[in-house]
Design brief:
The chain is built from 3 helices and no strands. It has helices at residues 2-22, 32-45, 57-67.
Length: 74
Amino acid sequence: MRDMLYVSAIVWSVTVGVVLLTSPAEPPPIDAGCLERGYASHRDAGHWPYLADGRLTATEVSRLCARSRVAYGR
């Protein structure tokens, strides 16, 4: 039983080490074109500088563009 726990701990440790070593040190840069399209889209819709729920539009645009370069089209 103890041997199984040791093996599980070793496998878990190796898996965590591989994930940490292969993950990028910093996130990729946000596409400036996506940001501009997002800002323009929200300005045209009348949601500038705040969204209907009170959040900052610029923060939401940055979040969406960080997730996908084509969040607001190409």
